[in-house]
Amino acid sequence: MAAQPGGRTSQATPQSAIQAHYRLAQEALAAKRYPEAAREFQNILRVDPKSAEALANLGTVQYAQGQYRDAIASFEKALQFKPGLKGAAAFLGMSLARSGRIEQALPLLQKGFQNPINTEWKLEAGLLLGDACQRTNNLSCLQSAVGELERLYPDNVEVLYFSYRMHASLGARAVAGLVKVAPNSARLHQLSGEFLESDSDFAGAVTQYRKALEIEPRLPGLHRTLGVALMNLSMDDGTRREAEEHFRLELSINPNDAAAEYQLGELHWLRNLPQEALSHFTRALTLQPSFPDALIASGKTHLALGEPVQAIRLLEKAVELEPNSDVARYRLARAYQGAGNREGAEREFAEIRRLRASLEALRKIYNQIQEARITAQKID
Questions:
Q1: Residues near 11 by Cβ (< 8 Å), separated by ≥ 6?
Q2: 32 found inside a domain
Q3: First to last CA, the chain
Q4: What mean pLDDT comes out for the span 237-259?
Q5: Cα(214)–Cα(199) distance, rounded to whole angstroms?
Q6: Confidence at residue 255, expressed as pLDDT on a 0 to 100 scale
Q7: Of the candidates 237, 238, 242, 235, which has an alpha carbon nearest to the alpha carbon of residue 226?
Q8: CB under 8 Å to 49, separation ≥6 — which residues?
Q9: Is the pLDDT of residue 280 over 90?
């Protein structure tokens, strides 16, 4: 009760009190003073205990503070009073997931991810959805959720990590299944070779690939894989000739294998036969126009032949496809230099320095999970 001039008094109406508390709550939220915001929403509920909006807002504040059980109660009550309240079901699903009630959370998260209360919470709903799908062994749901997250947030650290974790898990499941159903298959020997090659055990990898070919001599991709492993094992003339034979055998099985064509180009480049190398690189690009290594290799070959303009066209496309490739940018910088474009060259060299500074810490991890390719493009 507040005194007014002339001795009259006035009492705040319920609606004005609600508005005052709501305004204070919003100010507290903007400053991330969550306990204060929660008190204001609780004050609103003392005035109007059936306010679904106040309950949902209180639940959101409780969620932000990690008070998931309290948040669940608030959202469930809000939905009792207003079943269609926007965002409440999504937040209920998120709160349930955070509390470990995954099966209850999953259908709510699926709906919430598609129709979030706002974009700020869509990412969190999607990550929780992916985790719930994985925990319930719902693979189609998992792949769908991760695919959508990758599309919406291609550069988000959490999405990239979760995507890697998912693919690693699915890969492990597939390997276990392969061991169980086909322990003596060519594919299992091939997979064993790939694991050995990733650990730089090239001799072991070659042995496994040979065993696979004994079982299935025309298995697509296997001759090429063996050829690359041989080149990783040794660069003497005899090994190179054997590798070339396998690349040609691969092309006899599959004439459209761009990677085998590219590897033949690299062999000719190593023999200092640039024109022959270029013909193979060009053929690889005809088969697969967006083949970054073949684009880089073609660019470096044109540059070696004194054709920087042709090199620039190819290398600019390679950089467009792989903007974080320091090799592509280095080749492009050299091509710009050859064409007299000093500004373009400096720009690329500056970008290379930036990339190397930011990626050096990740290089070891990256190398561990990449296929070893002796003829992958690199800076000489």
A1: 1
A2: no
A3: 84
A4: 96
A5: 23
A6: 94
A7: 242
A8: none
A9: yes
Does a structural domain hold residue 219?
A: yes
Alpha helices in the chain (DSSP H): 14-30, 34-47, 52-64, 68-81, 88-98, 102-114, 119-135, 139-152, 157-181, 186-198, 202-215, 222-233, 237-253, 258-270, 274-287, 292-304, 308-321, 326-338, 342-359, 363-368
Q: Is residue 136 part of a domain?
A: yes
Asked if residue 264 and residue 196 are part of one domain, the reply reads no
Q: What is the pLDDT of residue 360?
A: 62
Q: What is the pTM of this model?
A: 0.65
Mean pLDDT, range 203-209, rounded to an integer = 96
> What pLDDT score does 8 carry?
40
How far is the C-alpha of 294 from the C-alpha of 233, rounded, in Å? 22
Which residues sit opposite 3 in a β-bridge? 9
Asked, for residue 8, whether it belongs to a domain, the answer is no
C-alpha span between 251 and 259 (Å, rounded): 10
Q: The CATH number of the domain where 217 resides is what? A: 1.25.40.10
Phi and psi, residue 249, nearest 5°: -65, -40
pLDDT confidence bin for 10, thresholds 50/70/90: very low
Is residue 26 classed as helix, strand or coil in its secondary structure? helix
3-state SS class at 3 = strand
Domain count, the chain: 3
Mean pLDDT of the chain: 89
The SS3 of residue 146 is: helix
**Alpha-carbon distances of 378 from 273, 293, 296, 375, rounded to whole Å:** 18, 9, 9, 8
Full domain range(s) for residue 338: 256-380
Helices in 5-138 by DSSP H: which ranges? 14-30, 34-47, 52-64, 68-81, 88-98, 102-114, 119-135
Confidence (pLDDT) at 169: 86
Query: Which of 5-14, 256-265, 357-366 holds the top average pLDDT?
Result: 256-265
Q: What angle do CA 319, 325, 307 make, to 5 degrees?
A: 50
